[in-house]
Amino acid sequence: MVKGIGASAGIGLGTALLVTEQPVTYTPHTPEDPAAEQQRFDAAFETFCARTQSMAENMDQRSDTAQGDILRGHILMLQDPFMQQQIADSIRGGSCAEAALEAACDMFITVFSASDDELTRQRAADVRDIKTRMLKILLNIEDVDLSHLPADTVLIADELTPSMTAGMQAEHVSGIVTQKGGKTSHSAILARALGIPAVLGVSDALQQAANGDLIGVDGGSGFVYFRPDAQQQAKLAEQRQAYLQRLHRLEQYRGKATVTADGRQIELVANIGSPKDLEQVLANDAEGIGLFRTEFLFMDRDSMPSQEEQFSAYKQVAAAMHGKPVIIRTLDVGGDKDIPYLGMQREENPFLGCRAVRYCLQHPQDYETQLRALVRAAAYGDIRIMVPLITGLQELRQVKEMVRRLEQDCAQQNIPHGEHVPVGVMIETPAACMIADLLAKEADFFSIGTNDLTQYILAADRGNPQVEYLYSVYHPAVLRAIQHVIACAKQQNIPVGMCGESASDPALAPLLVSFGLDEYSVTPRSVLEVRANLAQWNQTEADAVATHAMALDTAEAVREYLQGCVKA
Ligand code: PEP
Ligand code: MG
């Protein structure tokens, strides 16, 4: 048993197939006719583009547009005028096409590999893939063919490239183990998109395994079992069976609307922290974005993202969601989220201090930058602005006033922008709950943030293990607050959602269905699970559970009862 990086959860068990490529070697030489050599390169480049385009279309047909886009990106990378110029100069200077290509690609690989940013480092893998595929065309070497695989194959490779996997018979792949790659590598993205358990970063996997060996892959914990003994085999087989049954059950819900057992339609959307999470959102079939935590755009850097940077991130998310709702929360800094370059003062009680909308309204110039970027991005999709940590109407009014003014500004300057961009309130303070009736008259929507709401109602720090026993969404005080907020939203006919972790809690589902929650915003990986879960409940049954639960008097009694009601 060896530990690697668990990159795609699930249990795989099957027969090893070592994916090793023919060595791509050549002897550098000086061609007699550089012009003819350039033509040889150009012809190979054309073949590359045609093959890559067809692989991308193949991916699109599998509804794997993320991989399709990566492959189309390869064409653009090789078309890059700088890259082409480097290659042409080398050929003119006496290099053969292979050496010229290799030198140009290696330069990019070195630059990308040295980056601090993991995603940029992963781009080195793209260039390596481009280089290998181009060299193979130039040298007439056939590609690895994974289009016909025996059932229950575990692929063992140094790294799985998009080109290797483009025609892969994915339904016969039980697991993936690679020597290279991290959680955001192509192998990881591909494995997750296809729901194949994968462990990456097992540096000597190709030496440890031989073709035909039995291999167990636990993509959640990151363990790989090379030739498991009888006992391990039996356990893995049992876990694999349970995993497949769960997948099968969840797959029925892909591409379906989210509806309760008696047909009430519900919106099931995802929480994200950056445009990088879109791949997960699309792969898991979310119906939009219910919470984009924009503070992540402001973190891990030395200065505020500019209006253009923010605009481009928001626009990217809106465009990727093709008109589906995208709720973007304005900067929620403070509390446990520190952004050092903002130079915020140290506070005795940061969770009760200058946090979120309070900080933003005290720094109106920076807030305007964000709101303007949002108003502009709203021209490209169904963007809705959400304001965190509201405690009073005045805060909501101030933000709405700013948004309307910025819309007018954009109109006057002929800048594309959204009209009447909805402004909603995150309900996460006791004050917001108590005045939910008033807020509902002026907010365009509510989203209940149970993570904070629980801590503020129970006066129990959400990050303090010493009071963890008090922090419970099942506490009658929290549940009454949720019920009240939903009722106030219904009264005013505004949509009400939930974006705290509790939205994906199967034990709470009957309560939320009974109260009439309209929208559930959950981590992308929970989408199908929540859809499956909501489909189990009809109004009558949910109401019966809710009536019983709401009459119980302690968090523990409610938890025990509701967990006992969870439908498998
Ligand atoms: C919440 O408080 O429930 C929430 C979703 O926001 P965060 O976890 O980012 O504070
Ligand atoms: Mg919060």
List descriptors.
binds magnesium ion; eight-stranded mixed β-sheet; binds phosphoenolpyruvate; 568 residues; 17 strands; alpha/beta; Enzyme I, Chain A, domain 2; Glucose Oxidase, domain 1
Task: Describe the protein.
The chain is α/β, with parallel strands linked by helices. It has three domains: 2-20 and 145-229, Glucose Oxidase, domain 1 (3-Layer(bba) Sandwich); 34-139, Enzyme I, Chain A, domain 2 (Orthogonal Bundle); 252-565, TIM Barrel (Alpha-Beta Barrel). The protein is built from 23 helices and 17 strands. The protein has helices at residues 34-61, 65-79, 81-92, 97-113, 118-139, 162-165, 186-194, 205-208, 230-251, 278-283, 295-298, 307-320, 356-362, 364-377, 393-412, 430-434, 436-442, 450-458, 476-491, 509-515, 527-534, 539-550, 555-565; strands at 2-3, 5-8, 11-19, 153-157, 173-178, 198-200, 214-218, 223-226, 258-259, 265-272, 289-293, 325-329, 382-387, 423-427, 446-448, 496-498, 519-522. The strands form two sheets. It has an eight-stranded mixed beta sheet. Strands 10-11-12-13-14-15-16-17 form an eight-stranded parallel β-barrel, surrounded by six helices. Helix 10 (278-283) links the parallel strand 10 (265-272) and strand 11 (289-293). Helix 20 crosses helix 22 (539-550). The longest helix has 28 residues, at 34-61. The chain is globular. The structure holds phosphoenolpyruvate (PEP) and magnesium ion. Residues 388, 428, 449, 451-452 line the site of magnesium ion.
